[in-house]
Automatic annotation (TrEMBL):
It holds the Pfam family ABC_tran. It comes from the Bacteria. Its EC number is 7.6.2.9. This is ABC-type quaternary amine transporter. It comes from Amycolatopsis arida. GO terms for molecular function: ABC-type quaternary ammonium compound transporting activity; ATP binding; ATP hydrolysis activity.
């Protein structure tokens, strides 16, 4: 089932243009990866496919039919959805989690259980895990359950939003292999969101690179975008990451760490605030970001915050610093000490400056 974005724009009520006149076609039975820095509109684009977000203008066609004309509940039955941290129901067993959609579709309990067991096996989990609760599984196992749940009703389309970002790099590679193996058998139409160009190139039949502001920078096969980047932005984005593995060995010692403005949870920040503020708890640990222009006339809680990206622990390989900057909504990668306390922040530019001055580190990638 092919998907077509035709001149799709999304402007949120606060005026943010998250997606700007996006046109692209996702061919049937292929994996298309949306990739780009934090805030470039990847998640918004994905959620417009299953109508969790409605476009301001333009159309999204699923198998030739405008999704806006379809009942959202019916539409979503044909679309599996997998998110970061799997989003499992904590108080349901693994088997029950996977059986959720078949039960909603009115299958008998016995048939839903059978299907759930079969799916656990499909995603490489042993049936015994079915009796456990999500908290009793590793992060990687939880993601597999998330994939199994999304596949339960055998939807032709799968939407995956940074599904593997919260697990460590080794587990992540295992999950990527598993997805490719599954896909070779199932042939779903998959739209996959990530900020990691390595992951995009590995998984995508096609890769769509978005820039902040929600405009499509380039769309093509991985070989295409790596070999023929259309402009400096794409070249920078794919270029620096092509040597990414080499970066694992390059130390981030030389990266300048700047002070980051913080605000303690429980304070009353007032506002409107200037610039991004990093909220910290009593132990000095980062809890999320307060966006610029916020007015909070009550005690600051996590409910006021935008979730942060990955953290960079000082002394770890430089790849982590770049990841932290790219995944942060503020563009500032949060640097913590061994105890998890905030030390400061780095921008992607600062990290890239160091990398560009160490071509040997990149060349080994
Ligand atoms: N409900 C909302 N209201 C207002 N602005 C929003 C809303 N959701 C997202 N945005 C803004 O729209 C832009 C695109 O957000 P989106 O989540 O689609 O980006 P993304 O590329 O998926 O980012 P990330 O990698 O950080 O998840 C950002 O500037 C974001 O702050």
């Amino acid at each position: 089932m092919g998907i077509e974005f035709a001149g799709v724009t999304k402007r949120y009520p606060n005026g943010t243009v998250a997606v700007d006149d996006l046109s692209l076609t996702v061919p049937d039975g292929t994996i298309t990866v949306l990739v780009g820095p934090s805030g470039c509109g990847k998640t918004t684009s994905l959620r417009m496919i299953n109508r969790m977000v409605e476009p301001t203008s333009g159309r999204i066609l699923l198998d030739g039919t405008d999704v806006a004309t379809q009942d959202p509940a019916l539409l979503r039955r044909g679309i599996g959805y997998v998110i970061q941290h799997a989003g499992l129901f904590p108080h349901r067993t693994v088997l029950h989690n996977v059986a959720t959609v078949p039960l909603l579709l009115g299958w008998s309990r016995a048939r839903a259980r059978e299907r759930a067991k079969e799916l656990l096996e499909t995603v490489g989990l042993s049936a015994e895990l079915g009796a456990r609760y999500p908290a009793q599984l590793s992060g990687g196992q939880q993601q597999r359950v998330g994939v199994a749940r999304a596949l339960a009703a055998d939807p032709p389309v799968l939407l995956m939003d940074e599904p593997f970002s919260a697990v460590d790099p080794v587990v992540r590679e295992g999950l990527q292999d598993e997805l490719l193996r599954l896909q070779s058998r199932l042939g779903k139409t998959i739209v996959f969101v990530t900020h990691d160009i390595d992951e995009a190139v590995r998984l995508g039949d096609r890769v769509a690179i978005l820039r902040v502001g929600g405009a499509l920078a380039q769309y093509g096969t991985p070989a295409d975008v790596l070999r023929h980047p259309v402009d400096d932005f794409v070249a920078g984005f794919v270029g620096r990451d092509r040597g990414y593995r080499g970066l694992s060995f390059l130390s981030a010692e030389r990266v300048r760490i700047d002070e980051v403005p913080t605000v303690p949870l429980g304070d009353v920040p007032g506002g409107p605030t200037e610039g991004w503020l990093l909220a910290v708890n009593a132990a000095g640990e980062p809890r999320g970001w307060l966006p610029p222009g916020s007015t909070v006339d009550e005690k600051l809680t996590e409910g006021h915050l935008v979730a942060g990206g990955s953290l960079y622990q000082r002394g770890a390989p430089i790849r982590g610093a770049l990841d932290a900057a790219l995944s942060s909504p503020s563009g500032l990668g949060v640097v913590v000490d061994a105890g998890g306390e905030v030390i400061g922040a780095v921008t992607a530019r600062q990290v890239l400056d160091v990398i560009e001055n160490h071509p040997e580190g990149v060349a080994h990638g």
